[in-house]
Amino acid sequence: MRLGLNTGYWSSGPPSSAVEAVALADQLGFEHVWTAEAYGSDALTPLAWWGASTTNVKLGTAIMQMSARTPAATAMAAMTMDHLSGGRFICGLGASGPQVVEGWYGQPYSRPLERTREFVDIMRQIFAREEPAMLDGRHYQLPFPDGTGLGKPLKSTVHPLRKDLPIYLAAEGPKNVALSAEICDGWLPLFFAPKDNQFYQEALQQGMDAGGRNSWDDFEVAATVSVIPGDSVEECADKIRPMLALYVGGMGAKGKNFHFDVFARMGFEAECDTVQELYLNGNKADAIAAVPTAMCEAISLIGPPDKIKDELAMWDESVVNTLLVSGPPSLIQFCADTVLG
Questions:
Q1: Is residue 212 very low, low, confident or very high in pLDDT (cuts 50, 70, 90)?
Q2: 336 Cβ partners below 8 Å, 6+ apart?
């Protein structure tokens, strides 16, 4: 099992102690450092800023939202970061959800799997730099067909440092998870429960079969996991409940919430219904209190250190080969001692 540092979303400003945490992760042998974006800070700028002071870790975006940039602009950023980091960049992509895509970016949220295929296709063409990039797709057309008529297919002026620059896909539903293994180099699950490993293993295998991938060895599953050591499991769970209430209750409309669906598949559908109803009615405190401890434990490592060590075995036996953790330097050190030994 490998470790990565996920610096997470910004709130009013950069995460506290992020600079120290990134430096320590680089020193302790973490596999990579990741940044995020929603509708505030972007993923690329802090990754370049913090990554400039690292030498060992890979640098990934978890995630760059596809609706925020055209495929060509995303490929340009990826190649630029890869050159500047000496070949350490990982391009993590995701479709996000309709609230953000339509509400923030003003883009349509339709047929996300098809859109992802086209997006990655264009990026792969640009990385390969064998021919000018062209696509006549439903969502993306290169050159644009309805403009001045002066557009023409182009190659990047920059030769990529790596033509096989890795692309990872954030996905939650089974078809999207399968797509990550079919056309990408890694999967970024947000809420992974080791007890549901077979469900995801089958989805990934379907994608690998469709894409002609013969081995799991060159595919990474880097799962975000909350690690919270403490004497009381309940008190540790209290630190996770607000996040789960937000994602299950507020990140999407009733009947159209991908995070809700993940936990429903885990067996928490009734609990999720309660959380969502409370949250959407404005009762956020009650929604947070309604998140059961078992739901927190399913996707995290919380409680006494010995309990965390014992539960690591479930993660070791799953498709996950890298844990993405977040927290201050003290937690980064704890994770290194516990996971890496």
A1: very high
A2: 3, 28, 29, 30
